[in-house]
Design brief:
Length: 280
């Protein structure tokens, strides 16, 4: 990893240190507090490249991609801000590739007291509890009960916090049901975002129809509403292309026509465009 990349990581660490302690940053990054301190203070001699790479990946630091001010990014930022200020619980159910995850991570980096968790379908209840603790920078050891209580205690200590559960439709029912405990303990103090693909809405509604335990309560807590986003427009694709160095109108038009409303495909097309230029 070259010096320029290390400087990018340090700049990100310094920005994060303005919002939270170095110990919390270290837990999120999966390294020691001493390592974070040494990085920030430019004491790099004993820090291996593998450690830099670990911090980069765990903190989702990306210097190869520029964010564009798309329609959905603006709309999501407004929703997240409202949920955080008013301690609301909101469900967002929309197709993959609309820019949800990217916006959530950007919002977490920008604002204080925001916890972001990208859910996985292989998690057990214990691994879910452990990841919750890691996401908010507290110790991730002990029993499930101890970790959940530690997570809730941490959230109670924050002013107007927001927890974003991304890809929440991947959680098993027993883990999804924990949201009710979080809501009940933090109602009026903390906002929640439950985000997923359209299967999230179908799953909750199906659970209500089958009278599965907790699903009616869950639907009630999110106001019985599922927010959808706008389809990706040509203007959005052009903004992303321009922000990342693609100005050829013909290329932009081709990227838009082949992306099928998926911003991940837009990124792959931009990467392929530059790859082909290098090969040529």
């Amino acid at each position: 990893m070259n010096t320029s990349h290390k400087n990018c990581i340090v700049a990100e660490l310094k920005a994060l240190a303005q919002k939270e302690s170095q110990s919390k940053i270290a837990r999120k990054a999966g390294v020691s507090t001493a390592t974070i301190s040494q990085m920030i203070n430019n004491n790099w001699d004993l820090i291996r490249d593998e450690m830099w790479q670990k911090v980069k990946i765990n903190l989702h630091i990306n210097w190869d991609w520029q964010t564009a001010d798309t329609t959905n990014l603006k709309a999501l930022n407004q929703l997240l801000s409202a949920a955080q200020k008013r301690s609301m619980s909101i469900a967002i159910s929309h197709n993959a590739g609309a820019g949800k995850s990217h916006t959530y991570r950007l919002y977490e980096r920008t604002f204080e007291n925001v916890i972001y968790l990208e859910c996985k379908n292989y998690w057990t209840k214990k691994s879910f509890a452990r990841q919750l603790c890691t996401a908010c920078g507290v110790a991730d050891s002990g029993t499930v009960e101890q970790m959940i209580e530690r997570f809730i205690a941490n959230m109670k200590s924050l002013h107007k916090a927001l927890v974003i559960f991304d890809q929440v439709d991947k959680l098993k029912d027993s883990q999804l049901d924990l949201f009710m405990d979080f809501y009940n303990d933090l109602d009026g103090h903390c906002g929640f975002i439950l985000s997923g693909v359209p299967a999230l809405k179908k799953r909750i509604e199906r659970g209500c129809q089958l009278d599965k335990i907790g699903f009616r309560e869950l639907r009630s807590r999110i106001g019985r509403k599922y927010i959808s986003l706008k389809e990706v427009s040509e203007k959005d694709v052009k903004a992303i292309c321009n922000a990342n160095g693609v100005d050829d109108e013909q290329v932009i038009n081709e990227i838009y026509n082949t992306c099928e409303g998926d911003l991940r495909r837009v990124r792959r097309s931009i990467d392929q465009y530059f790859l082909m230029k290098e090969v040529a």
